[in-house]
Amino acid sequence: MKRILGGVIAVLIFIVLALAFVHIPFGNIDLAEYHYYNPVDNEHTQDSVPQHYLDEGKKETGSTNIVTAVVVDYRGFDTLGEVTVLFLASTGVGSIMYIFEKEKRRKVRRANAVVETASKLLFGFIILFGAYIFVHGHLTPGGGFPGGAVIASSFLLLYLAYPRFHAEHKNLNIAESLAGLTFVGVGILGLFLAGYFLYNFLPFGLPTYLFSAGVIPVIYVAVGVKVGSELTGIVDAMMGVRE
Amino acid sequence: MDLFTLVSLILIIAMLIAAVVAAEIKDLLSAAIAMGIVSLIVSILFYILQAPDVAITEASIGAGLSLAIMIFAIKHTERWEK
Known about the structure:
The complex is a heterodimer of chains A (243) and B (82). With 243 residues, chain A is mainly α. Chain A is built from eight helices and two strands, in the order αββααααααα.
C-alpha cells in the first residue's frame, strides 16, 4: 500500500515538473522573434533580465564582478535572508551540542609535532586569504560566503592541531552581532537617504579599484565576518573542549 | 578528443567511483573520506567550468568543514556499519 502510494506521488510530482518545464525555453532561440514579458512596464520587450544584468550591471552597481552585483545589489534582501538562515542553523547546533556536552567529557590526545608546527605557520596565511576573498568580492571571483568558510576552516585546523584550543565565545558573538548590525544598518541608511532598503548610496568610484562599487564592499565585509564567526561557532560547538 | 573533454571525463569517472564507494563500503570512516574526495573533484570541475567562486566554497565547506563534522559524528558513534 505504501509503495503504491509512493509511486502515485512520484508520478504526480513528475507530471507537475514536466508541465513546468514545458514552458521554459531551452537552447538557441531566435531572440528577434521571442519577447520577454516585463511586469513593471506591462509590455513585451526583447531584453531579458539576465541580459540586462550583463549589459547594465557594471554601470548600475559599479561592481566588476557581475555575480557580486546580483548577490549584493540586485538581490541584496535575499542575501540578508540567507545570512539569517545560517545564523539560525548556528544557534541550533550550539544549543543541541551544549546539552550533550554536560553528559560526556571528551578524551584529549595531542596531535603530532608536524601538524602542530604546520598549523601554527599556516593559520595566519589562511585567515589572510579568507579576508582577501571577501574584501575583493566586488572585483575578483569570491565574496562573503567563500571568505567566511575559508576563515572557519583555518579555525578548524587549530581545533584539529590543539585539542585544548577553543575560541572565545564572547569575541565570536561580538563579531557576529556587529557584522549583522552593519548589514541591517547600511540597508536602513539606504532607506532613509534614498528611499528604499539596501540602496547603493555611496559614490561608485572608478571600476576595478578597491574603493569602488559604493556599499557593496561594506556589505560583503560584514557578510564575510558574520559567516566566518557563525561557522567557527559551529566548529567550536562540535570540537571544542570546555573545562 | 581534446584535452578538456579528456580531463573532465577522467575526473567524472573518478567522482562516480568515489560516490559508489561512499554508498557501498561498510567502514563509515572510509565512506566519509570518499565523500570528501567527491567534493574535491566537484570543486575541480567547477574550476574547469569557470566558476572559481563556487569552487572555493565547495572546497572549503564540502571537503573541509562537513568532512570534519562527519568524522566527529563517527567518532562519537560507531565506525562499522552493521
